[in-house]
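User: Please look over both lines:
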Amino acid sequence: MAVCRRVPPLLLLLMSIVLYVHPIRGQKLPNNAIVKSVVSVDVPAQNQGGVARTSGWKLAEEGACRDDLTRLCPKHSWNNNLAVLECLQDKKEETEIAADCNHLLWNYKLNLTTDPKFESVAVEVCKTTINDIKECATEERGKGYLVSCLVDHRSNITEYQCNQYITKMTSIVFSDYRLICGFMDKCHDDINTLHCGSISTGEKDVHSQGEVIACLEKGLVREAEEQPGAHAIRDECKKAIMRVAELSSDDFHLDRYLYFSCREDRERFCENTAAGEGRVYKCLFNHKFEEAMSERCREALTTRQKLIAQDYKVSYSLAKACKADLRKYRCSMDTNMPRAREARLSYLLLCLESAVHRGRTVVGECQGEMLDYRRMLMEDFSLSPEIVLHCRGEIEAHCSGLHRKGRTLHCLMRVGRGDMAAIDSLCQKALQTLIQEADPGADYRIDRALNEACESVIQTACKHIRNGDPMILSCLMEHLYTEKMVEDCEHRLLELQYFIARDWKLDPILYKKCQGDASRLCHTHGWNETSELMPPGAIFSCLYRHAYRTEEQGRRLSRDCKVEVQRILHQRALDVKLDPELQTHCMTDLGKWCSEKTESGQELECLQDHLEDLVAQCRDVVGNLTELESEDIQIETLLMRACEPVIQSHCHEVADNQIDTGDLMECLVQNKHQKEMNDKCAVGVTHFQLVQIKDFRFSYKFKMACKEDVLKLCPNIKKKVDVVICLSTTVRNDTLQDTKEQRVSVKCRKQLRVEELEMSEDIRLEPELYDSCKQDIGRLCQNVAFGNAQVIECLKENKRQLTQRCHHRMFKLQEVEMMDPELDYQLMRVCKQMIRRFCTEADAKNMLQCLKQNKNSELMDPKCKQMITKRQITQNTDYRLNPVLKKSCKADIPKFCQSILNKATGDSELEGQVVSCLKLKYADQRLSPDCEDQIRVILQESALDYRLDPQLQVHCTDEISRLCPEEAAAQEQTGQVEECLKFNLLKIKVEGCKKEVLNILKESKADIFVDPVLHTACALDIKHHCAAIPPGRGRQMSCLMEALQDKRVRLQPECKKRLQDRIDMWSYAAKVAPAEGFSDLAMQVMTSPSKNYILAMIGMGVCVLFLFGLLCGRITKRVMQEQKDR
C-alpha cells in the first residue's frame, strides 16, 4: 500500500482505490457506467490457489462464493462485481458466509485499493470537480493522492457521476479498517492493547472488522470520560478514529458496526428515510429512547453521539448546515485554543448561540441542527464527558436507573439544588456548563423531561404563547404553585430554573434586553465568555442594584431591561433556591432556623423573622432583598397572588400605575381588614410589616422621606420603631415648645404620621410593648386575634390584671393615644363614619373631644358611643390621660391634690383620685374657671354613667351588684345606678362606698347639672323660674329651693318630689358626715339651700352680742395700773 503523504493522520485513504476502470480512455460514461463497468475491471484478484484472474473476471464465477451468492443475492446483480460485493458484505448478522468467500472478497477489495492506475478513472469521472477544487487540481498524479483529496472535499462535489463514484467506493472500503490508508499502521498497538481484534488477514470475518473500529471508538470515549482502567490512545490513532467517524457521517452504511447493530431498527423506525447526508443517523437518534429500540443499537448510537460531542464534524448534517456560520462568526479561528477543544460540539454550540443572542443571523437550517443536538445533550447526560467524570458518585448514589429521556440529568439537577444531598463542586460546574451549552431557556422543547412533564400546563395556562417561545418558561413560573400546575412539572421546572438563575445569560429575553446595560454598568464580556472579576451570578446582582436607583443616585437601567429584571425577581421570590446569593450565604442559617419551613415562600419569611440571628453575610443578603421588596412588593409573587382580590377592589390604580414607590404595600396595609382580604394575604402583609420594624430601610417610603432627618436627628439608630419614636418625640417637643421652625421636615412628618398609624394597628409592630405583655396576652387574650388593635383593646379591658411591666407600657401607650387620638386605632376604626359626620372640621388632636361632645346625639352610632364611653372611663382613671383637663387644671392639681401626687408612682393610674379631689373642690367652689368647666363636664358625664367614676367603681362594685343589679345591667346608662345608690344610702355597708355616695350628694348641691335625674325632672321649672340665673356655684339649685319654699310658686310634681328627696338626702348626709372643720362647715353653709336663712341668723346673733356688750359694759373686774406694772 502506498504511503499516504498528504492525508493528515485523520484521513482514511480509503479512496486511493478505484473500483471502476473504463477500458477505453476518453469515452463518455453513461450515468450507470459506474455500476455496470465493474464487470470489466482489469484488476487481478488472487483466488484460493494463487492464480490471478484478469480482464472480465467476475466474482459470481468464483466457486468459493457461488453458494453464498446464490443463497443471498438476487440473480440480476451477479454480473456486477460491485453489486455482488455490496450484497455479500451487507448480509444480515445471523447469516454466515463461507470463510473462503470472505477471504476472496477481502483480497479483491485490497487489490482494488492499492492500484494507483485507477486514479485515471477519478480524473475522467470527476474532471469538472477537480478543476473546481483547487486543492485537488494541484495534487501529484499517479500516487493515489487525488482520490484522497476528493474524499476530503466530497461535501463540495456537485457533479452527480463523481459523487456516485466516491460514495460507492466508500461503502466498499469502510467494510474493513485494514483497507483504510495508514489506519492499521497508526492504530496497530492500540488495537492490540484494547483487544479490539486481530490484524491477521482472514482471521476475522467481514462483520467483525467494523467492530474493531467500534471498539477503538469506545476506548476513545472511555479515555475522554476518564473511566477507571481506560487506556490512553495515541494521538495519531485518535485522529484516525475521528477521521473515520467524520468520513462515515453522511451515510450510516459506512459505520459498519452501527449499520449491523441498527439494521432492523432502521427498518422499524426510519423505513422511509433516505440514506445520505446523515438523515438516517438523525432519525435513529430521535428514536433512541423508544421502548422498541434494541439495546445494541442504542449503545452504538450513544457511542456515535459521544464522538459528535468530541468533534462536531462527525455529524455530517451539522457540519454542512453550519459551515458558513462557523466561518462567518470565526468559531474555529481561536489560535489560543487547541484544535481538539474548538472542534468540540459544545464550543460550536456556545459560539453560534452567542451570535444568536447578540442578535446576529444564523441560517435556519443551522439553527435547526443546533436545536437537535442541544436536545440530544439534554436527553442523554452520558454525551457530556464532564458529567460522566465528575458526577459519577451522584449518579450511582441517587440517579441510577433513570438513564432515558433526560431523567438522569434532572435527577442530578435536583441533587444540585440540594433537595437530596450535597453535590460535588466539579459536578455542579459540569451541570452548569451543560445547561449553558444546551441553552434550554431559549426553547423549553430542548428539555424533553420538562416538555413531557409540563405539556398539560402549557396547553392550558400558556396556550396563548407561540410554541417554543422563551416566554413559555416565564409563563410556567407565573403559574408555579397555582391550581393549573402539576407536581411533576413543578419539580422539573424548579430543577431547570435553579441553574438558569445562576447565569443571567441563560435567560434569552433578559440577555437580549439587558446586554447593553450589563456591558455599560457591569463591564460584562461576550455571551460565551466569563470573567473571574464578574462571574455570571454577580451580573444579575449588579443589574438589580441599578434597577432601583433614583436619578440622583446615578446611572439607571433602561426601561426594557428593568422590566425583565423585575420579572426575574418575581420568579426568584417563589423559591429561595432560585436566588444564588441567598442560597450561597444562608445555607447554614436555613438549616439552623428554617428546617421545618418547607412550604413555598416560607424559607425567606423565616430568614426575615430571624434577621438579627443570621450570620453577617446572610443578614446583608436578606436585608438587601427585603429593602428591595419594600420598594416593589410585586416582587413577592405569592403574596400578590393571595392579595389579588383586595388589589382589584381597592388598590388596582396603585398596582397599575406604581413606579417603585412602595404605594401598593401601603394600600394593602390600609385595606388589610376589608372583606376582600383573605387570610393568606393578611398574614403576608402583616409579616412584611413585622419585618419592616427591624430596620427603617425596609420601609421604602419612610426611608426616602426621612433619610436626611434620621441622619441628622437620630444617628446610629437602625430599628424602625426606634427611629419612629425618635422622630415623633422630636416633633412633639418642637410642637409643645412652639418652635418657630420644626426640626423634622414636612415630608418626613407626613410619612411619620402614616408609620405611626400603621404601628397602632397591631401590638406586634411595637416590639417593646409586645415583649412586655407577651405573658399577659397568653394568659388574658389567648383567643383574641392580632390585628385591628384587638389585642391592645383586650389588654386595656383587663388592665387591672396585667403584670406591672405590661401595665406600665400600656399606660404609656394610652397616654400617647389620648394626646393624639388618631393613633387610637380601635377608636378611629369604630367611629370612622361618626368622625365624618360630626368632626370633619375638628383637628386630629381634638378628635376624641369632638366625639365626646356629640356622644349623646340621636345620630350617634351605638358602637361608636360605646367606644367613646370606654375612652372616657380610661381618661377619668388618671388626669394625665385627659390632656384637656391636665392643661386646664395644671395650677389647681398641685394646689389641692399634692398629697395624692406624692403617693403616686410614675407609670400607674391614680384610679381617679385626682379627679375625685378636684370634684370635691368643685363642690367647695374653689377651682379656677377653666378647671371648673372641665370638672363640671366630668361630673355631668359620670352622673349619667357610674362607670365614668373610677372611685365609685373601686369602692361600690359589690354594693352595686347587691343593691342595684337591674340598673347596672341596663344597656343605656342615664344615672339610674347613682340614683339607686342615693336611695339605698342607709343600706350601704361598705364605708368607702358610702363616702363616695355622700360625695356625689355633696357635688350635686353645687350644681343641678351634675344631678341629671333632678335636672331632667325640673327642666321646665328652671326655664320658667330660674332662667335669668346663670348655672354653676349652686345658684340654680338655690333658686329651685327658694321656689319650693315659696307657696306662691307651683313647681312640677316630679320636680317637687325630686327636690324634697334631695333635701332629705342632704339632711341625712349632714348627719352621717358632719363638717370636719371650720372651712368644711363654712362650705356646707355656703352650699346649703338655706344659705340665706343660716347667714341671716348668724348675722343676727352677732348683732345681738355686739349690742349687749355696748349697753352692759365690761363684765370682768377692772385691774389697777399698779398691779399691771408689777
Remarks:
- The chain is about 60% helix and 0% strand.
- Confidence is low (pLDDT under 50) at residues 1-55, 198-207, 335-339.
